[in-house]
Amino acid sequence: MYGTIIKRVPKPANSLRELAQRLVTEGPRKKEKTTRRVRVLFDDVCLADSTSAYHVWEHDYYPYYYFPTSDLKVDCVKREPIGDDNAVSFATYEGPTTSTNTALMFTKGELKGLTRFDFDEMDAWFEEDQPIYQHPKDPYKRIDILPSTRKITVKVQDVVVAESSMNMFLFETMLRPRYYLPQTAVDWQYVKPSQKTTVCPYKGVAEYYDLVVDGNEIKDAVWWYRHPTRESALIEGMICFYNEKVDLYVDGEKEQS
Question: What's the pTM value of the predicted model, to 2 decimals?
Answer without folding.
Answer: 0.79
